[in-house]
Amino acid sequence: MTTAQNVVEVRDLRKTYGDTAAVDGVSFDIHRGETFALLGPNGAGKSTTIEILEGYRRRTSGEVRVLGADPERAGLDWKARLGIVLQSSGEVGAVTVREQLAHFAALYPNPRDVDEVIGAVGLEEKAGALIRKLSGGQRRRVDVAVGIIGRPELLFLDEPTTGFDPEARRSFWALIRQLQGEGTTILLTTHYLDEAAQLGDRAGIIASGRMVDLAPIGELGGADARIPIVRWVEQGGVREERTHAPAAVAAALIDRLGGEPEGLEVIRPSLEDVYLDLVGHEHADDLAPETLTETRA
Amino acid sequence: MTAPMTATGATGARPVPPGLGSPLARTVRLGLLRIGYEVRAYFRQGDTVFFTFLFPVVMLTIFSVSFSEASFEQTADGDDITAAWFFLPAMLAAGVLLSGLQNLAIDIAAEKSNGTLKRLAGSPLPVVSYFIGKIGQSVVTGVLQAVILLLLAFTVFQVPLPEEPARWGDFAWMFLLGVITSAILGIALSAVPRSGASATAVVIPITLVLQFISGVYLRFSDLPDWLQSVASIFPLKWMAQGMRSVFLPDELVVLEQNESWDEPGIALALAVWLVAGLILTRLTFRWIRRDS
């Protein structure tokens, strides 16, 4: 089932724990050189899926090919072509940033230059510091640096920018664009929809273990999902109408009601609105607060 | 994150990734690299340096000072055997146990629960290279520890050290075999604690009991025969006996079981435990619990 164009192929992937299905029949491909974003609320099965692709978990059923191999059986040569940034940083022994990167560089056949990578993640001033003494955001940057030191063909980024300040996030995006420019294929999970929109070519949205949508980021939810909504209050109740001509609808309202409609709004659904429609509003709390304020502002 | 990285293979086809090369040569090369990495990190940890590395040194000092008035045995020439002399072999044996088994069982259990092993599992590091790094760390720290113990005993407590090269030859093989066996058993034992936090609680009682029944803190010849027989199942008793055979005068052999240093028995016991440790490690060691 592997083709030269697909770096990752997943067919009907299932992972069950007892009676519970963490991943329930997910299928998708990732093309060479693209950045694929896997979105979904906490507990939807994103991390389980990514860890199956990384070889950390066994699947219950389904077919998985990553760089042409089954992750459950792939060897060290296969691992040498991957870069993995895990969701949790974990702890690191008493080593410095440069020591850690130099050590991991030595594990790979064609690593990047250590100082270049330290510069790329903006840790020049901390290169000689013990990793355990760094802040959470700085440690996360070490994780990213370790993930790319081996010049991976396929890079897994599991919520990579958690704990980053906005400036660090923008710099991280620039770094990822550079990797994209070099042809690196990337699988990204994130809670930040703006991050997915900035970096992703296509996205899959997972909810309750199922892929509820799979499309280029700009087309998620289908064409209808982005039709503007006109909303107003009439006789004490909220009314709304989806329309490609919101101004005409508003004008007709004025004519019909004989004046300014109460509480008139024209809403153009954002990626976040589309996403929330797809996963169900009960998961709205899972969104990162920053995303909510940014897109609602 | 501003400095640009050199773009390689940015245009069109990526270069075919070079292979990893000969697996054996690579495993050994990375194993040696791991030893340097592990040793450096080890000595930056204040608590392990104190409780594992310096512990036998502290204990030898305490025993030597507290029992400085006591005489333990006498040599054939009628000289007193001081506490420092008497306990030097015991502390060397304890050091082997601590540097290998106790240190690695706790260290690896912690690395399992703090994400270090998961990170390594995602890299192309051969698992055997990881083991070489851990065993090497035990050997390096164990040898340094032994050197400090010997220097302390010789210079401060005036313990006479053997002059015959053959004794130092015995010391070399017993010490190396002992510390490697101890390290491998530590790797095997690291599978037992359910978390890094519980590792100390699981491991320390084991090593403490072994030290008490194997003639480290108590005179082995004072223990009842049945307890001596129980201790003979475990490697520490043989390690301590081996160190006594090197550092105590020959006439004290009468205090040993069967009045013999039993070098073949020492070699056999340590070798059997080494193989047992390898088998257990092969059966139980996993980078991560795949379905945790």
TrEMBL record, chain A:
Residue ranges of every copy of the ABC transporter domain listed in the record: 8-233
PROSITE patterns referenced in this protein's UniProt entry, alphabetically: ABC_TRANSPORTER_1, ABC_TRANSPORTER_2
Principal place of residence: membrane
Keywords assigned: Antibiotic resistance, ATP-binding, Nucleotide-binding, Transport
Membrane topology: Peripheral membrane protein
A GO term, aspect molecular function: ATP binding
UniProt-listed GO biological process terms: response to antibiotic
Gene3D superfamilies attached to this UniProt entry: P-loop containing nucleotide triphosphate hydrolases
Localisation: Cell membrane
Pfam families: ABC_tran
GO cellular component, as recorded: plasma membrane
Top-level lineage group: Bacteria
InterPro entries: AAA+_ATPase, ABC_transporter-like_ATP-bd, ABC_transporter-like_CS, ABC_transporter_ATP-binding, P-loop_NTPase
Name the UniProt record assigns to this protein: ABC-2 type transport system ATP-binding protein
Species of the source: Microcella alkalica
TrEMBL record, chain B:
Lineage top rank: taxon: Bacteria
ABC transmembrane type-2 domain span: 47-291
Membrane topology: Multi-pass membrane protein
GO cellular component, one term: ATP-binding cassette (ABC) transporter complex
Gene Ontology molecular functions: ABC-type transporter activity
Subcellular location: Membrane
Organism in which the protein naturally occurs: Microcella alkalica
Keywords: Antibiotic resistance, Membrane, Transmembrane, Transmembrane helix
Protein name: ABC-2 type transport system permease protein
TM spans (from-to): 49-67, 87-110, 139-159, 171-192, 199-220, 265-285
Gene Ontology biological process: response to antibiotic
InterPro entries tied to this protein: ABC-2_transporter (IPR052902), ABC2_TM (IPR013525), ABC2_TM_bact-type (IPR047817), ABC_2_transport (IPR000412)
Predominant location: membrane
Pfam families from the UniProt entry: ABC2_membrane_3 (PF12698)
